[in-house]
Amino acid sequence: MTPWCCHQGYAILSALTKKARTKPAAATIFSQLKDTPTRSTSHTDPNTGKPIIKRQLLEPWHVPTVAGFSISTMQSGQLVTSHEHWDMWEFFYILKGNATIETDDGAVQYYHASAGSFIGIPPRTKHSIFASSNTMEMMVFGVVPTVAE
């Protein structure tokens, strides 16, 4: 069996019931990027030991099937090593800079992404990201589909 990714909250998600996972959020969510603090992601560059940073606009699981929404920043040469998510779709939209995104679902593919590029990574697809410009910023959005009837 493929292991769960190291993102916080995945163990919690597995314990939720179908009813809890499909219940809508109770209140409107509003935040300003400029007021959102920077913090580390669960990914650390293996070459420098420095974490990839993010500004988390939507906390994981605030909306039951959403694994969060954030703006991540990577410096030139930083790498998010290959990993996969058991049942989460992960979406990336490049806001600034350039990156190479590698996917492996049995066949390795490379995507050269720049500002305006969008990529959706299905569950159980290994993927890595390499920042190839001075500063690369991207929106990151994760969704876990609801449990089938």
- Arrangement of strands in the largest sheet: 1-2-3-10-5-8
- Taking the alpha carbons of the first and last residues, their distance comes to 23 Å
> What is the β-strand count?
10
In helices, the fraction of residues equals under 10%
**How would you sum up the global shape?**
globular
H and E order: HHEEEEEEEEEE
Describe the structure.
With 149 residues, the chain is mainly beta. The chain is 7% helix and 48% strand. It has 2 helices and 10 strands, in the order ααββββββββββ. The chain has helices spanning 10-15, 18-22, and strands spanning 38-44, 51-58, 66-75, 79-83, 89-96, 98-104, 108-114, 118-121, 126-131, 135-143. The strands form 2 sheets. Strands 1-2-3-10-5-8 form a 6-stranded antiparallel sheet, with no helix packed on it. Strands 4-9-6-7 form a 4-stranded antiparallel sheet, with no helix packed on it. The longest helix has 6 residues, at 10-15. 21% of the residues are buried. Mean pLDDT is 85; it is low at 1-20.
